[in-house]
């Protein structure tokens, strides 16, 4: 039987247990270090990172927590209680067919083939001159994500261009150095988002870390743990694979711009390190591609999250849809009204007009019903519509329109407001009235008491007595708190007041400057302003539209079209319907007044454009649109049209069409003022190196064709040797009814380009619309151009809304371009008759060519119709790189 030292073991049992514990600890340490070398760390049951902060739960693009298939089931079940949609987002907004159903997006599921030379850099897309600090503002950009302003590469995930108002989209692949769990963190000024796919497919990208959602959040460079959302959950990565990532960053016009992504192994105490060139690679090589080639650009949940939201209530009244219906056939309108000459007195044919003064002879039309072109959502910052001084409105508001109801024993509110306004202006100007309105000097006292009062001003309640005049009441300044004293008795201290006027003024000024330094302990209590919650007031109906005239107002760029009085519009429509039914035997019934436009001529009458929705006796709904003239009785004799010809003999009309026997204005049909419904409209646009805008313009025109079904228009692009895309190929590929491509050499010349486009139009009886590239057209633009262009009579210069930085057609913030006449519709025959564009004076510079053209249009005897058009926008765009202008950096590179 072998000998076993049982007694010794019992005596040394504690030492043996300690040795066993140390051995186990050493073995566990060895195993852990071995796993770390292999890139596989032991999992911690609690998700705590550096400095004891709990790691945040982040969501993927669908608002659901991303759980890698390699994670264990118990780990994912622990975090399921923390599931949330992204900050500030409604699940129904992300899932318009109900929460839980994913969006139908055009995502890129197959990554392109990868090459070894892609290693060491990633793709960078820049969207310049776009305001806002949130990534959501970047997604609102019209060209995001396919058409950036610049395509380039970077060699590490830390970028700081030292610029403002831009957005970045950085994408490519991450190559881990070893297998294991990795944490990511993003830091930026302003907001940013870091998306990572569990594979190389962009379609699987999930939001793992972000800095803010509202645009007000930011971090310092390298500050990776300021927000809990910055740090991701641990992600199991393998060194043998590559993982698609996407980094979105939005920078506003403040702060030190930067964005960087750090990573670390999931171990306590380790710090984040910026991901360098050794672990990144390109998604694809874009160096040889033109800007209109976008098939290679990845589309992931990062660039489409929230892209298809629920239909929201329009934020501005002008976004509400316009009604539309088919028109009445032209033959049914013949002989409804008696023909008459149309020669308005405001036409300045052959009248000498000074250079650039033609816009002073442009008059505005009145519109009914309200077309909501007034930019009411912009009047918080611009109240020019109310014709009040901004300083006055800031100080006193609109209280002058309110008559406060007087209560028993209360001072008249209107007199009080006027008195305070007078005191405020007198104090600001420092005029002679200021000395007379100063508070009266206190009653004479002993010298000791006077000195004590000067050292320690005592605050006492003001005394009120009806026997004293209002001038003796204590006055409190708006800018400083004056000493409150008792009222002055009649005749008291008059001589002393006269002697102390000058000295008192100087002393008061010095006291105001040194009041903070020399103020001692104040006795008494401050009196709080009493609030009368029961105060009521009386107010009448105020119509500020009545204060406007038909002069072309160049000062206020938020006011809409002039509003026509309802009674006048209804009266004209009633007269026309009476004549129409007298001619056609009551065949039509009026359903709705769609639009009435009035151009006033106080000497001869007013021209009206009537657009009515009618119900035909057979049940068909029709649309009528015709010009009529409300002729004044004194304008009958001696009138000729613009060519000096008498009106043609009037055909036989019904008795209802005769003039009013009581001398009232009568309706008639103005000769040669009928617009053509089927006339061809040619959009002429000169371009150069604007690939993303050319693609957008062609897409908008194709959508206009599909939406309206109107094929009577053509697009003419005049290309000045664009290098960033093949304009002709893009034009051929666009689904347009008609198009024409013209190529010119040399620098960009807007006047020459427009003239070349008009010269390419063969039909002189068609309309040419001189256009810009960065325009968003409403569906009504074609009919709007046709209705307001009449050969030999009318030209059309619609007012476009110029969108501000960061604004889009869905959320329009901007102003009406009341000074610009660059968007101009006119018949080609009239354009040729006035001499066309001034190509000699305006060559490679522009600005003023539209006013010069306007001068000659008016001198030729044409009227220029000027209306604000709903949903007609000029996109905000960057001017960097336009028209072939080189940057200073590029110029230095080309210098020998």
TrEMBL record:
It catalyses: an N-acetyl-beta-D-glucosaminyl derivative + UDP-N-acetyl-alpha-D-galactosamine = an N-acetyl-beta-D-galactosaminyl-(1->4)-N-acetyl-beta-D-glucosaminyl derivative + UDP + H(+). It comes from the Eukaryota. Residues 109-279 form the PA14 domain. Residues 66-92, 430-523, 638-663 are annotated as: Disordered. Signal peptide: none annotated. Residues 651-660 have a biased composition (Low complexity). Keywords: Golgi apparatus, Membrane, Signal-anchor, Transferase, Transmembrane, Transmembrane helix. Residues 492-516 have a biased composition (Acidic residues). It is a single-pass type II membrane protein. Its main location: Golgi. InterPro entries: Chond_GalNAc, CS_glycosyltransferase, Nucleotide-diphossugar_trans, PA14/GLEYA, PA14_dom. One of its GO terms (cellular component) is Golgi cisterna membrane. Gene3D superfamilies: Spore Coat Polysaccharide Biosynthesis Protein SpsA, Chain A. Residues 461-486 have a biased composition (Polar residues). Transmembrane segments: none annotated. Residues 72-92, 638-648 have a biased composition (Basic and acidic residues). It is found in: Golgi apparatus, Golgi stack membrane. Its EC number is 2.4.1.244. GO terms for molecular function: N-acetyl-beta-glucosaminyl-derivative 4-beta-N-acetylgalactosaminyltransferase activity. Transfers N-acetylgalactosamine (GalNAc) from UDP-GalNAc to N-acetylglucosamine-beta-benzyl with a beta-1,4-linkage to form N,N'-diacetyllactosediamine, GalNAc-beta-1,4-GlcNAc structures in N-linked glycans and probably O-linked glycans. Belongs to the chondroitin N-acetylgalactosaminyltransferase family. This is Beta-1,4-N-acetylgalactosaminyltransferase. It comes from Neophocaena asiaeorientalis asiaeorientalis.
